[in-house]
Each structure stands twice: as structure tokens, then as C-alpha cells.
Fold this sequence. Notes:
Elements: H1 8-18, H2 21-35, E1 39-40, H3 41-54, H4 56-73, H5 79-91, H6 96-108, H7 113-117, E2 119-120
Antiparallel strand pairs: 1-2
Helix pairs in contact: 1-2, 1-3, 3-4, 4-5, 5-6
Amino acid sequence: MGNPPFRPVKEIEREIERGDLRMAVAIAKDFAARNGRPIPLAVALKLLPLVAAKRPDRYDAWARRWLIRWLTEGQQPTIEAAADVAASLADLPSEPAVADEAIREVARLAPNARNRDAAVKLDADA
């Protein structure tokens, strides 16, 4: 029995579950290089709580990049929805479970194929 096919998005999710930000970012960068686009926006969202925990000094930059992508790749969300998502992103470091659920709920309001398949540029050093 051979090895199963490599599924980078699943591997990123496993690394997030394990709490290994460096490995998740490395796989994401490899995904971007191989596919000519970064990881899906939904996967990038899953990285934010880990970034907040492991690299709080870099969290704001990561959250801003995610928010910009969500705003530009969505179906033009309302300013109210954008404010709600931004507020939830701001709360995520101190209240990860509550903020994560709020972000997912608001982000769900403007879904489209581009949002589900869109990519995020990840740079652990940015």
C-alpha cells in the first residue's frame, strides 16, 4: 500500500491543530509556490488564533492582511459587516473562541466561490 496523495491544505490544518505555526506557514508557502496562489482564505482564517497565541507581535499584520483579502475577495460586504469582522479580529487575541465564532459567522454572510478558493499571502516575517 502506497502513501496517500499529499494534500497541503489538510496538512496545514493538521499543523494548526498541533500548534505548529512554523510548519503550517512552510506548507502554505510551498502551496503558494506550487499553485501560483496562496492558501484559501478560510484556511488563513484558521491560522489567526495560532498566530495570536504564538506570535502576538505579528498578529495585527496577519489580521489586517486577512481582513483586506476578505473585503476585496468577497461580494462587497457592507461597512457594518466589515466593522463587525474587524472588531472580532481585534478581540481574537484576548477571546479566541468568541471572536473566532463571530468572524466565521460574519465572513459567512459574504461567501462566493472566490472566497472559498481564494488565497492568502503568508509571511511569518512580515
